[in-house]
Amino acid sequence: MALPNMPAEQVRSTLQELEQAIYNHEQWAEALYGTLICRLAPDQRDMDVDAHRNCRFGQWYYRSGVVNLARHPGLAEIEITHERMHQHARTLLTSSVGRVPISIQDYGRFVAAMKNLYLEVATVRREFEDTLLNLDPLTGTPSRTGMLTKLREQRELAVRNVHPCTIVMMDVDHFKEVNDRYGHGVGDKVLVNLARYVMAHLRPYDTVFRYGGEEFLICLPDTTVETGLDIVERMRVELGSLPHEAGDHGTFHVTGSFGLTLLDPILSVEQSIDRADKALYAAKAKGRNRVIAWDASMNEAPAKPTA
Fold first, then answer.
1. pTM, whole model, 2 decimals?
2. DSSP codes joined into one string, 5-50
3. Which domain holds residue 47?
């Protein structure tokens, strides 16, 4: 399951915070075991119904930045399991305070919740690490390395009628002219600015991949072509108004062309990408700075336009 769109530096900082949160949780668990084994008075914070929010792991999880990530299924599962674990811990502490023997069933439920939490955290940590390995070094977007895997997962969901998925090819118009006029350093900054803007304004479950050069592929799960046209048209307008700095040359703007198509369940992923490519070529052939959806008339595509 892919992580939400995040710049590389945010992935790194979140991974570091996750490592610290895991350490804090291990410290909490050691203190809990000591309280139970030595029959010490419990920390009253562990007896509260909001204990899962007030422990140091919970404080990290419920910070605003991480809550935004919680729409990722793996992180959402961590929230559920972490709260359940604290409920079971409270049951054990209540028995200990009342000098009542802890039942093997209550202890087993707590241990199971702890194991599940560690498993879910390890899975998410591995996804963060894999994400870092697969990020494009310039733009911070996922590279083509994991793109086909993501698209094949979405195609499988479409095959099973879970939901449709639309894919979009995006190309920066006249990008060679930007490099020729302002230099490749400015051109690189344009790609970074555009990529970050797209990542910040897509939905949490959408993904933008650096396809190559000035081309990007955007995956829009649970999206029909009609809805995709609306989403991408807004994106086109917003990207065209985004200012780019060129030093002594001041600011300038660039536009983008977009081709989109349904990730067709009866076609291979590569064939659907080819359809999106043909729609992109049609958008550029019609004057650029526009959004075109694939249709059957594009099967005999014209020669590929230059940038």
1. 0.69
2. P--HHHHHHHHHHHHHHHHHHHHHHHHHHHHHHTTPPPPGGGGSTT
3. 8-133
